Amino acid sequence: MSRPKPSELELKILSVLWEHGPQTVRSVLDLLPDGKSRAYTTILSTMQVMEKKQLLAHDRDGASHVFRPLVQREDVMRPLMGELMQNVFSGRPSAVLQCLLDEVEVDQAELTEIRRLIRNYSQRLKDEESQS
User: Fold this and answer.
1) 33 pLDDT band (50/70/90 cuts)?
2) Could you tell me which of 95, 93, 36, 25 has the C-alpha nearest to residue 61?
3) pLDDT at residue number 4
4) What's the rounded Cα separation, in Å, for the pair 123 and 127?
5) Distances 129 to 42, 49, 72, 79, 116 between C-alpha atoms, Å
6) pTM above 0.85, yes or no
């Protein structure tokens, strides 16, 4: 059974949990990356819906509920990124990367990491070709 696609707020909540590990609702609210002011009850109800969608689970820690993701970042983002690339960038990874580089401030450390990722991917393709 496939899970429903997460909403924008659900993705932000998942992002917090992927980055920081299991958290209470209050912690998630404080750690949301967009800095928007939201009510505690908004985040709580969203996280409860996410449990029903099997995106999250919680454990009790005294009186608190500590939520954890049931999905991996890659499993959620791979289809979303593929859909975005296909629908917006005509299936061209280079167009996605160009848009990202034009839109976001990329420092030298990030550029180095991007180059490393491309080198590793290129090497993996060469290895696969030589095994064929």
Assistant:
1) confident
2) 25
3) 76
4) 6
5) 50, 45, 29, 25, 20
6) no
Structural tokens at position 127: 């290895």
Task: Give the DSSP per-residue string, 41-86.
Answer: HHHHHHHHHHHHTTSEEEEEETTEEEEEESS-HHHHHHHHHHHHHH
What is the rounded CA–CA span in Å between residue 86 and residue 84? 5
Number of Cβ within a 10 Å radius of residue 29: 19
Give the integer Cα–Cα distance in Å for 46 and 17: 14
In whole angstroms, what is the distance from residue 69 CA to residue 76 CA? 11
Rounded to whole angstroms, the Cα distance separating 38 from 102 reads 30
| Arithmetic mean of pLDDT, 35-42 | 92
Confidence bin at 83 (pLDDT 50/70/90): very high
